[in-house]
UniProtKB/TrEMBL annotation, chain A:
Keywords: Hydrolase. The keyword Cell inner membrane does not apply. Its EC number is 3.1.4.53. Residues 57-249 form the Calcineurin-like phosphoesterase domain. The keyword Hydrolase applies. InterPro entries: Calcineurin-like_PHP, Metallo-depent_PP-like, STPP_CPPED1. It comes from the Bacteria. One of its GO terms (molecular function) is 3',5'-cyclic-AMP phosphodiesterase activity. This is 3',5'-cyclic adenosine monophosphate phosphodiesterase CpdA. It is an enzyme of class 3 (hydrolase). Coiled coil: none annotated.
Automatic annotation (TrEMBL), chain B:
CDD domains: Amicyanin. SUPFAM superfamilies: Cupredoxins. Transmembrane segments: none annotated. It comes from Bradyrhizobium ivorense. It holds the Pfam family Cupredoxin_1. This is Amicyanin. It comes from the Bacteria. Residues 1-26 form the signal peptide. InterPro entries: Amicyanin (IPR035668), Cupredoxin (IPR008972), EfeO_Cupredoxin (IPR028096), ET_Amicyanin (IPR052721). Keywords: Signal. Residues 12-104 form the EfeO-type cupredoxin-like domain.
């Protein structure tokens, strides 16, 4: 245990930087971010950035594949998931593994889980899942846990280590309260506190969960009621990365040593907060759809605390 | 088709036993889900009224009132009905999108 305290970054600076970040992530199809000591630097648009040689460990994030979705916003969500997995297969340096931040299926049907498995397994990577609210709506609420819950606690939370990084998969889609947001619950938070106890503060931490752990837009339920408690527990760590899905668009925020990032969906885009009457699927021109879907690649360079997130759209 | 008419018949039969004959169907009420909103979100009804929620979004929703009723997941155009047999205030929400809330006053 280290007693080292990490200074908070200049708040004014942080706020204006955050504004720039939000504008950029909404305006462009893919930006490479390098985070060094909690300070983000944009290295440019994905096309050029992807060419840069990644060193260290790289893992991928895919999210919100909604297998089974067939509405106008994307009548072929299976097809775009296949395209995403083909893109993953085409990455020259094989990533270490993949995380899926939930909403694997649209309606938790066995066939949807089967189809998702069949396609995602083509990536030939280990995949670490957390459930989205769409994965736990089968009548007996058992399919997700049967398939992905082995070795997990509670509703499916767990942690593991890879490449010197401690990964923690959290579940914030269970036992939601009327009028509230995403929910972790006491049991999970206690487990999290214990899981982090005694760990060296220099261990990079990655928290991943379906609904954003930070409050993105409460009017649409985009946040986690007790997410703040989880963030308290990781406060002292030098490098914390929070990866979420659910909102079907790239969004990023940095607070102190914590970087928050949400991934695109592979199925359909959702509107920017408050820009539409509801967070429902956003119908865009067919030609534009693939520029709003995609996967994220995250690279850790051991020793330098550098973390780079590359969001790559399926097209564009 | 036959399921629907049988159910309607059942409600009518119960109503006939408990209430004046004319009270049954005229008060039955619909709530629509559009754009992640229950419409109307607030409702005053008489005891014995059946309320039917219909999901018109491209995203599934549920209707849950703790300890009182809980719908299955409703995909697009699916419906759920509940007959309110006891007076009181019923607050309900969508268990998938808990910011969606509504309330029904039964008198």
């Amino acid at each position: 245990m280290s007693g080292h305290d990490h200074d908070h970054h200049n708040e004014d600076n942080g706020v204006s930087r955050r504004k720039v970040l939000e504008c950029m992530t909404w305006a462009s199809t893919g930006v490479l971010w390098t985070i060094s000591g909690g300070v983000p630097r944009s290295l440019g648009i994905v096309g050029s950035a992807a060419a840069a040689e990644p060193a260290g460990m790289t893992f991928l994030q895919i999210s919100d594949s909604h297998v089974g979705f067939d509405k106008p916003a994307n009548p072929n969500a299976i097809g775009t998931l296949e395209e995403a997995i083909n893109q993953v297969r085409g990455i020259p340096a094989k990533p270490s593994f993949m995380i899926h931040t939930g909403d694997i299926t649209h309606l938790s049907k066995a066939k949807e889980f089967d189809d998702a498995d069949r396609i995602i397994s083509q990536a030939k990577l280990d995949v670490h899942y957390v459930p989205g609210e769409h994965d736990i709506i089968d009548e007996e609420v058992k399919l997700y846990k049967e398939r992905y819950g082995k070795g997990t606690k509670g509703a499916g939370w767990y942690s593991f280590d890879a490449g010197g990084v401690h990964f923690i998969g959290l579940v914030n889609v269970v036992d939601l309260k009327g009028g509230g947001l995403g929910n972790l619950g006491n049991d999970q938070l206690e487990w999290l506190e214990n899981d982090l106890k005694g760990r060296s503060k220099s261990t990079p931490i990655v928290l991943f969960a379906h609904i954003p752990l930070w409050t993105v837009y409460p009017q649409w339920g985009w946040g986690t009621e007790d997410g703040g408690r989880a963030l308290e527990y990781v406060k002292g760590f030098g490098s914390v990365t929070v990866l979420n899905g659910h909102i079907h668009q790239v969004m990023q925020k940095v607070e102190g040593n914590v970087t928050f990032h949400t991934a695109r969906s592979t199925a359909f885009p959702q509107p920017a907060p408050g820009s539409a009457p509801s967070p429902g699927p956003m119908k865009v021109e067919d030609a534009k759809l693939r520029s709003m879907l995609g996967v994220a690649s995250i690279n850790f360079k051991q020793g330098t605390e550098r973390l780079a997130i590359i969001d790559t759209p399926l097209q564009g | 088709m036959s399921t629907i008419s049988r159910r309607d018949f059942g409600i009518a039969a119960v109503a006939t036993m408990l209430l004046p004959v004319s009270a049954a169907r005229a008060d039955d009420t619909a709530i629509h889900i559009d754009n992640f909103v229950f419409e109307p979100a607030k409702l005053d009804i008489k005891t014995g009224t059946t309320v039917t929620w219909t999901n018109r979004d491209d995203i599934p929703h549920t209707v849950v009132c703790a300890g009182k009723f809980r719908s299955k997941t409703m995909d697009t155009d699916d419906s759920f009905s509940f007959t309110f047999t006891a007076p009181g205030e019923y607050k309900y929400f969508c268990s998938l999108h808990p910011h969606m809330t509504g309330s029904i006053k039964v008198g």
